[in-house]
Amino acid sequence: MSVYKIILYICTMKHAEVKNRITETASFLFYKNGYNSTGINQIIAEAGIAKATLYNHFKSKEDICLAYLQYKNVNFLEDFENFTTSKPKGKEQILAIFDFLQLFYQDKDFNGCWCIKTVSEIPKDNEIIRHEIQSQKNDFIAIIARLITNNLEQVKSEQVNSLARQIYLLYESAVGESHLHREDWPIVESKNLCEKIIA
Q1: Contact 101, 172 (CB under 8 A)
Q2: Keyword Transcription regulation, does the record have it (predicted)?
Q3: pTM for the complete prediction?
Q4: How far is the first Cα of the chain from the last one, in angstroms, to the nearest whole number?
Q5: Cα(114)–Cα(167) distance, rounded to whole angstroms?
Q6: 73 and 154 together in one domain
């Protein structure tokens, strides 16, 4: 490998590390304090970078928001799939959706759904962020549908999408209501309802 390629590789790695640090810092602040309540200067200070460095990686706060949403989603979906598919095949993998949520709720940093929190703060006409959130939610429904297909043989193929959406709605309701009440009974009751609809 030439010296030029080595230098280029090192610079690329450093660039990625700084971008990740900005994304992780913004993600923590946006999720904890809210998108609108978190300013660019706070992200810069917490990440320990110069303003110019931030704008070398992100053109706007909206771009940082998109990176935040994607960062949270990638980690969530990976953890969700690993957890649910680690359970015994059958109904257990479906009900594990709510066991996963129970663990999420018990995390000391639990602050509800980052997507719903964000969409409630953006202007109605911000289609870029809204589209990203809709895309993430559709991906989540698709994963639930895959769990149904792989675990519930009695469910006909034409019923899978509808059932996936029903379970998705139970999950989303449980996230919001457990955050509101600061209790886990919405998760417990959503799991009970899910058990009835997949019986």
Answers
A1: no
A2: yes
A3: 0.88
A4: 60
A5: 19
A6: yes
